[in-house]
Amino acid sequence: MSFRALDLNLLKVFEALMTEGSVTRAASALTMTQPAVSNALARLRDALGDPLFVRSGTGIRPTQRAVVLWEPIGEALESVRGALDEQVFDPARAQTEFSLSMSDYVSSLVMPDLLGHLGKVAPKARVHTSPTPSWRSPTSSRTTGSTAS
Q1: Taking Cα atoms as reference points, which of 128, 81, 132 lies closest to residue 103?
Q2: What are residue 132's phi and psi, to 5 degrees?
Q3: Is the predicted pLDDT of residue 75 greater than 80, yes or no?
Q4: CB–CB of 8/47 below 8 Å?
Q5: CA separation for the pair 122, 145 (Å, rounded)
């Protein structure tokens, strides 16, 4: 199968069939008719030379070839979706790094709770901390004492 000859819209149908497990539910998820999804599946079967799905008691189940194709196709579609969709920050999927600078004392107070919270809401995020230098207060650099005039 040549990539150039493949209608990429068929990959969305493949994704819906894999996630829904039913032609009717896939049609609903895609806002298509059931015959249109069946037609797209027939074209995909022809293009890939595999039945891809077989009927089961409650819908359809993927063939071994469909199972092998699912991970790379699903990841590719998710990547394309991420590139084209409006960029909304989703902490659960964010793979970002935060750099924080704080004293060791503040770190001992803040970091346990912060890391616990981030582990729940942003499990793929990483946090790097670095110590801040010890700052002198403005008054500590002044000379104390009185001068005679």
Answers
A1: 132
A2: -85, 150
A3: yes
A4: no
A5: 54
Tell if the pTM clears 0.90, that is, is over it.
no
Bridge-partner residues for 53, per DSSP? Answer: 62
Residues whose CB falls within 8 Å of the CB of residue 21, separated by 6 or more in sequence, listed in order? 58, 59, 60, 61
| pLDDT of 129 strictly over 80 | yes
> What is the residue whose two structure tokens read 């969709």?
85
What string of DSSP letters covers the chain?
--GGGS-THHHHHHHHHHHHSSHHHHHHHHT--HHHHHHHHHHHHHHHTS--EEEETTEEEE-HHHHHHHHHHHHHHHHHHHHHS-----TTT---EEEEEE-HHHHHHHHHHHHHHHHHH-TT-EEEEEEPPPPPPGGGGSPPS----
Amino acid found at 79: S
Sorted by sequence, the CB contacts under 8 Å of residue 61 that are 6+ apart come out as 21, 53, 54
Contact 36, 27 (CB under 8 A): yes
